TrEMBL record:
Pfam families: ABC_tran. It comes from Butyricimonas hominis. This is ATP-binding cassette domain-containing protein. The keyword Transferase does not apply. Belongs to the ABC transporter superfamily. SUPFAM superfamilies: P-loop containing nucleoside triphosphate hydrolases.
Length: 306
């Protein structure tokens, strides 16, 4: 039987006196994007750094393609591409020079380096930037270079620590698409503290809180822990909750203070448009309406209460 690409067994890590992660176990196999979700300080980077062999665990084992990372670190690393949270870019090198340097530290076959660099650049959409100094690239392009170095040696498993952190909204969409593309033929694991990120990019989710895995399953299963969509609206002459509840698409309505109303709705934009039209038609004088996103804390509270 083939080994899973990653197997983590009872992993523990302690930097000082407190456990940063405790008893983390999981297996990952197949292509697609696995999201490691958790608040800041939950233990995501610690877990990823240990899996990628840049931090030695206090206890527990990691197997990459069946290879014990403590016993055979160099052999295990051949299967892994890693983009740490702070990309290890050298600003005074051009994209080409930097990728050549990365190929050399991966001990790649010299004859294959040029082709591999060309392919990684093309995959990541940076071919036209290959002679530019890294310092002169935008954050989005720097992140693409970071992803290019992670896939350069064609690893089966790619680990990206908060890959969209610090990018602007357009760059985020582009980098997410790139991640989905490279996951077509390999396993990608990315970490994020943003709920919508896992929903947009990942097929399966592992949620870590306080150093422990609190959820592991598909995005669909995870969705059942997310509060239904809520809207918050204010009116100068607010309607009664019952009037709103009578409208299609609205599941719950409650007054908040003297002017606010919080609504649970079906998530359909038409429902929002209907509320706005009704407000005008019936003279409720709406002054504000916004969609409220479910917070990670709310999901965690629900998972903990399971
Ligand atoms: P995340 O990536 O989910 O934000 P981390 O793995 O970075 O979480 O951190 C987990 C815990 O370990 C946090 O409490 C953090 O403060 C602590 N920690 C992380 N790195 C170090 C370090 N080098 N020394 C001491 N404590 C650390």
């Amino acid at each position: 039987m083939e080994n899973p690409i990653v197997k983590v067994e009872h992993l523990y890590h302690r930097y000082t006196t407190q456990w940063a992660i405790e008893d983390i176990s999981f297996e990952i196999d197949g292509s697609g994007v696995v999201g490691l979700l958790g608040s800041n300080g939950a233990g995501k980077s610690t877990t990823m750094n240990i899996i990628c062999g840049v931090l030695k665990q206090t206890q527990g084992k990691v197997f990459i393609n069946g290879i014990d990372t403590l016993k055979h670190p160099v052999a295990a690393r051949k299967y892994i591409g890693f983009l740490p949270q702070k990309p290890p870019l050298y600003p005074d090198l051009t994209v080409d020079e930097y990728l050549r340097f990365c190929a050399e530290i991966h001990w790649m076959d010299r004859k294959k380096i040029k082709t591999a660099i060309g392919e990684a650049e093309e995959r990541c959409g940076i071919t036209h930037m290959k002679d530019r100094l890294l310092r002169n690239l935008s954050g989005g392009y720097q992140q693409r270079v970071g992803i290019a170095q992670a896939i350069l040696h064609d690893p089966k498993f790619v680990v990206l620590d908060e890959p969209t952190n610090g990018l602007d909204p357009n760059q985020i969409l582009e980098v997410r698409q790139l991640i989905r593309d490279i996951a077509e033929e390999r396993t990608v694991m990315l970490s994020t503290h943003i709920l919508s990120e896992v929903q947009a990019t990942c097929s399966t989710i592992k949620m870590i809180e306080h150093g422990r895995v609190v959820f592991s399953g598909s995005v669909d299963e995870f969705d059942s822990y997310i509060e239904p969509n809520t809207l918050y609206a204010t009116f100068d002459l607010p309607p009664l909750p019952d009037e709103l509840m009578a409208m299609p698409g609205i599941r719950r309505a409650e007054s908040v203070g003297s002017h606010g109303v919080r609504l649970t709705y079906d998530g359909d934009r038409d429902t929002i448009k209907l509320i706005i039209r009704e407000s005008v038609a019936r003279g409720w004088e709406m002054t504000e309406i916004k969609v409220e996103k479910s917070s990670m804390e709310a999901v965690f509270a629900k998972l903990s209460g399971k």
